[in-house]
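Fold it.
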Amino acid sequence: MFNQEVLNELIKALGKDNVLTEKEDLLTYSFDATAAMPRETPNVVVTPNNTEEVATVVKIANRYKVPIYPRGSGTNLSGGTIPLEQGIVLSLLHMDKILEIDDENLTAWVEPGVIIQDLNDAVAKYGLIYPPDPGTVTTATMGGSVSECSGGLRGLKYGVTKHYVMGMELVLANGDVIKWGGKTVKNVTGYDLTALYTGAEGTLGIITKILVKLIPAPEARKSFLAVFDDINKAGTCISAIIKNKVIPATLEIMDNVTIRTVENFTKAGLPTEAEAVVLIEVDGYKESVAREAEIVERICKECGAVEVRAAESDEERDNIWFARRNALPALAQMKPTTVLEDATVPRSKIPEMLHAIRQIAEKYNLTIGTFGHAGDGNLHPTIVTDFRDKEEMERVDKAVDEIFKVAVSLGGTLSGEHGVGISKAKYLPLEFGEAGVETLRRIKEALDPNYLLNPGKIVLRGE
């Protein structure tokens, strides 16, 4: 229970400047980027500067049984950092150092507050990249990205965050510090705790250092925008590209609602009459890029594209991806509330999922813009609404229920990259069954028996 004694101990451990209690600060840290979520204003926000201070905070919280909510930039989209009870928000933004870049072993050690784009800027001078590329790459932190196991535009060819985490240091629920993994290419010693804590959303421990894998930057790249008058043709095109043994670095889709909204927002020159556009980038060695570009352009035309635009300069390429990265901000301009989901299906089921989303929008009389990483089946049906309209929000809830039921029925999953957090916890039995959810609960209780680490996320305390 939080009281003045807890506050005094936190101030003594961290210094007054690193313990925030002003009402405006507390309110700010009771939100993240997820709309229409329940929330509670925390008692205090702390900003530790190193692992030892994080461990001290955890020990204080454990002693007084006060909940802790780890937090990065708060760009996550499943309510993963929102406090559901009063307690301590633990911001890791002060821990923002790139500790080491090892270009011989193609690795980097970073603190959790490092911005992803800053890491990529730092490794670029070595001819390297860190491939995970979430839409909020210029603001999202490494710790938040690892905790949510975020994906991004390059997920099709390069994989998601979990494929690049080689080790970590973290603070357990009792305040103990452990370090796991390493730079070796092979490591099968013991249980794979690195995998367990990647995507755990801060519910099992607090990550304080991360070892990530880097790869050589591609030598060349080519971007396309394919325009379709039928969204089913666009979905078929996506499957056909993969079927022809071409794995683009990026393979994205935007439906008509998204196209019109983005064009109004960015003036990027998108075809507003199109039913869908597919955005494609191939990369690698110059020779392979040239060959794959020819194949991609041919397949798009064979699948019914009414136009295929190839970017002839870096400026044109940047314009294409600027438009795609602004899909969510543009849709968010339409109404006060934006409900963004990330239902994910096998690539072959994309046309069926797109059709189902349209039917659901019509059934519940809602505006749903769909965009996303179509090459890996990760779609983002985005409902624009107003949380003050209770009747409409009831329809939104029913629509989201159906979207996830359809995704799972098509062999898909509840989340491709946004995590479970608050928003999807109730749907877990759909995918795992009750026995699967109970297994998750047993892991939680083994590592955090008092439910003090980010409580209310992923699994709830058993009855």
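The chain has four domains: 4-91, 98-216, 218-333, 334-455.
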